[in-house]
Input
Amino acid sequence: MKKTYGIEVDCANCADKMELAASKTEGVKACTVNFMMQKMIIEFQEGADRDSVMDNVRKNCRKVEKDCEIFI
Amino acid sequence: MNRKQRIMLMRIALSAIMVASLSFIPVSGVLRFILYMAAYLIVGYDILLKAIRGIINGQVFDECFLMAIATVGAVALALYERSGDYTEAVAVMLFYQVGELFQSYAVGKSRKNITELMDIRPDYANIEKDGKLERVDPDDVEKGSVIIVQPGEKVPIDGIVIEGESSLNTSALTGESLPRDIHAGDGIISGSINLSGVLRIRTEKEFGESTVSKILDLVENASSRKSRSEDFISKFARVYTPAVCLSALVLAVLPPLFLMLTGNAPIWETWIYRALTFLVISCPCALVISIPLSFFAGIGGASNAGILIKGSNYLETLSKTKIVVFDKTGTLTEGVFEVIGIHHGTIDDEKIIEYAALAESASSHPISKSLQKAYGMEIDRSRVTGIEEISGNGIKAVVDGHDVACGNDKLMRSLGIEPVMCHSTGTIIHVAIDGRYSGHIVISDVIKKHSEEAIRALKDIGIRKTVMLTGDARKAAESVAEKVGADEVYSELLPSDKVEKVEELIAGKGSDEKLAFVGDGINDAPVLGRADIGIAMGAMGSDAAIEAADVVLMDDDPLKIAKAIRISRKCLRIVYENIVFAIGIKLICLILGAVGIADMWLAIFADVGVMIIAVLNAIRALNVKKL
Output
């Protein structure tokens, strides 16, 4: 199950860091951050609860890049 | 500029003014320190906070950390030496922020430009309600509804024109600037712009399934597929920063220790200063930002030229293409049949065509369509009676009171007429009128106008081999291959044979050479998937092709293949330029910094200057008009 979220992030390096942080979040199978389109594409693991996973993704991303925003 | 950027600009300006005026005001001691620190904190407090937060969260080595260490270190050195020279620390932070501001502004701006270039998204659809036009969200329009498109508006949904005449600008879709005429009964593709007349359109798809949505989806997701260079850079950045920090530490500690042990003065200040310079130089931003930006600009420029590339990885593969394999029908040829000759006529050629077209007027077969097209006039069905179709062989009918038979040689012989056999390649229609042989019509697929030029263009840009595959008969295939100048031709292939042939060709090429397959996408999906890179042509109508291909040429022009390769090469050249340039300059500056030639000012150039140049270079990839 794949879903695309809009994001707001200022620098490409930070986008890379967000990608890494989101990929390591539990319930996320794969994550790609598209800095140019300001989008985050998340592939969820089967049976994962999307809302709670996304909350954690946002939390983890904020840890590496405080200014980032994910529009859930 | 957004709010965040404006605030940053104010902070930079304020801090710069403070530093400038402080250099004229003779204050010293604690007051001087406080005033400089105020300027420093105004411009850099967020960097310090981020660095601290990074350490708390276990993300130690980032650029904020580098900058924080470098500037705090410089202040500490100034305090230790009692020189009162805090300018350098403030300046480093100041320029770093200027660079960040420029980066976010330039990147944001070019991001907007490129997305605008690709923006073919229609905002609304017009629906007629009680005689009045109403604007609705295209998503809400059901399949089979009637929408109205006024001059100047974008066609929001695919459909069929039921009323009105106009010309369309399809340049956003195909890159073709000549307007296309459209009449009632024609199919219409979303994303084109209506130029002159009001059109009523019956929608045939939902918005989400329409061409425009599919293209947008494809282009927007293109940069999510990362190329090897991009992967390399993000991996590089991950090991690079820790490595640099470690080297800086070594630089600060080892030489003084060595000097101490050999009985010399350790000169700690000098070495710490060099280590700090080292840190400033090392920021990885230039690389990390310019590579994806180059790819993004390349993909954006290509899509503006009517070439959709599904990802930066495909751009990379395309640039290494050395073998191009073509499908014949619909790719090098038009895929529509045309009358190319009338031979052995015993009456006027026009008469033969007229009788044949009338006799075949009831059939919807491509052959009879081509006869009607060659006839060029309205078919008067009342002149034709007694149409009798002899399956697989032809048609008998009575036209203007004459018995007309048209079809293959078997039909002629069954009527007791001896046909004159033809040596041309193509489909032969023999025509007999009132039991007498009157000649035959040769119908054949015609070669596209640009096919020969396209293959020559490929040769010019260094494509090693061009191959043509087709299911057609050998004679027809070889004649086409010779005319367009293909190096090799394989004919009479079933779809599965095509896959095998492509596999054979892939096995026989060098490991650094890539093979591209170009097809019209209708029955080529397996081959498109098997080739290193699949290019679908004129695929606006075919969903399967958009799915299966990696590159989609939105018009039918085979010349675009060479253009696509040239675009990819330009883009890749810019990527490599940026990698080499950014890493090279940094490396040189790092060495200069380590031996003490480069000071903080050069360090700032190495960071901010290189980043700005790399970003400007990346934007060049957008310009593909003249390629």
Remarks:
- The radius of gyration of chain A is 11 Å.
